[in-house]
Structures
1.
Amino acid sequence: MTFAGRRAVVVEVVFLLLWFVLFARIAALLGTDVVAANADAAAVQSAEHAVHLDVELSANRWLAGNPWLAQPAVYVYRLYYVAVAGVLVWVFVRHTEVYRKVRRTMVAMMALVLPVYWAVPLAPPRSALPGAVDIVARYDPFHQESWVHPTHYTAMPSMHVGWSLWCAYAVWTALRGTRWALSAWLFPVLMVVVVITTGNHYVLDVVGSVALLAASTAAAWAWGRLTARSSPV
């Protein structure tokens, strides 16, 4: 690799690290209004009940009764970032032709979700639904006190599902046209099952995640077009 190539890699890594740190810091400051979060949770529960989508409590109780499934579900929930980092590195190293596209989508997703966190603080089912079992707290391999007593409520949309959707989108974009491309979408399907059964998200949170990915891909497309126009020929 040339000096210019190494410098480009360093710049990319530093940019992503700073962006992730900034995102995490801002997200931690949002959704702190517990009263609003519980009120929004009640509204979501009411809306889901009206259209018969309120499956969270029954799904949560089913998983609570099957600890042999609950423990792997918690590992999937807690270690999702390993998949995100792995996909990002894989695309960067092996599929550079689509890297900028999927990276722009990732950055757009992180930027677009923050206003939603601010506008719609939302308590998750594990704390807002009477009788729900906090599966992650029960089987948390990291034993984090902040998980048992959260300081912010940002369940809408589910970024666990959002990140898994991004992973699937990135892999599908890189492998499009091959027989393996569609299999990438099994990861978000698994994550949807995990977040619902562990009591961490509502069905409508998942709908919000899909909408977030759609908006982020559109923003990334517009970003790419703007960049292409501003670049010298």
2.
Amino acid sequence: MNRRKLLTGLLCATGAAAAARLLPGRLHAAEETGGKADDEFPPVNITREQWQEILPADRYRILFREGTEAAGSSPLDKVYDPGTYICAACFLPLFASEDKFDSGTGWPSFTQPIEGRVGTKLDFRLILPRTEYHCIRCGGHQGHVFDDGPPPTGQRWCNNGLALRFVPEGEALPELRTSA
């Protein structure tokens, strides 16, 4: 490939990303899932500095620096026992085990979150827009949602394993974290 074609391709991609930011309209069905903390689940009163002290460095990087763990590195990818997947920061239940499936991507994947527990936003870090989702209580980054999942939703909520904790069925959920 010559430099002219490479530059033209980069300019087109940059222009598409800029246009996507400016154009109104729905780019992904997941953006309609809402996701603001409310009276039932008020926001957590913990600063980024406090989260950095509370959480191990790898979890902090993913949850509050919007990092991504290596594919295949999470033991949660292969967990299919009955239970609940909770935010690793504030402990809000985000996913039910019956909505988990093996996507073959190397990350825990779900067909849907528990209603009202995640918020979404557009992410342009890879130039083309993707829909990122996060915990509504603490704002912790969980992953991205794609339209290539199985029925019933056709969605793949692709999650960082380090952003979650698994609580087996029959075990009490931890109390929601409210302060440092």
